[in-house]
Every structure is written in C-alpha cells, then in structure tokens.
C-alpha cells in the first residue's frame, strides 16, 4: 500500500497510529504540505517499517532542504521517481 501525506495538520497520536499500520511491504510519500511532517516529526518516520519518501520539489519550494539531517531516514525523490513509486505500490491512500 502507498500512504500519501499531503497535509501537515496531524497530531502526534494520529500520526503514530497511521504509521503503525505501515508494513515493510508499504511505502509512505510526503508531498505538498505533507513535507512539513518530515521537519516536525522526523523521529516517527525513522521508526516506520515501510520505505519513506519526500518529494524534492515540494521540499525545495518550502525551503526545508537545509532543515533535514544529512542522514535522513526519508529519501528525497523527483516527480519521475514518484510516478515509479505509484506504479509499484497499490492500493493507494491519500491522507
């Protein structure tokens, strides 16, 4: 399954509950305002069982690249990478 986070208004408990559903066969994509979650709650994504991705264009547009640690558990991806990921993981859920 592909979990797509496009908003940043998740509380700690809600985000922990959502990420607890993610298995090693799943992926998480942060895009649009969802990229702010990588700055606010990076530690939760570090513990996520699935692969975590963050859209590079949205990260750059919000000037967040410098705020992400060098050893980031969330992989920066391009729009082309996003297309490949959406083909690979299904079903998809937009959060």
UniProtKB/TrEMBL annotation:
Q: Please indicate which superkingdom the organism of origin belongs to.
A: Bacteria
What are the BP-aspect GO terms?
tRNA wobble position uridine thiolation
InterPro entries reported in the protein's UniProt record: DsrEFH-like, Sulphur_relay_TusB/DsrH
Which is one Gene Ontology cellular component term of this protein?
cytoplasm
Provide the coiled-coil residue spans: none
Q: What is this protein called?
A: Sulfurtransferase TusB
Q: Which organism is it from?
A: Rodentibacter heidelbergensis
Lineage, highest ranks first = Bacteria, Pseudomonadati, Pseudomonadota, Gammaproteobacteria, Pasteurellales
């Amino acid at each position: 399954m592909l979990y797509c986070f496009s908003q940043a208004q998740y509380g700690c408990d809600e985000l922990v509950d959502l990420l607890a559903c993610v298995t090693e066969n799943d992926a998480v994509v942060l895009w649009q305002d969802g990229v702010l979650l990588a700055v606010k709650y990076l530690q939760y994504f570090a513990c996520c069982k699935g692969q975590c991705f963050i859209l590079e264009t949205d990260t750059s547009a919000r000037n967040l690249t410098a705020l992400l640690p060098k050893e980031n558990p969330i992989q920066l991806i391009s729009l082309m990478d996003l297309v490949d990921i959406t083909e690979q993981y299904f079903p998809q859920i937009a959060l």
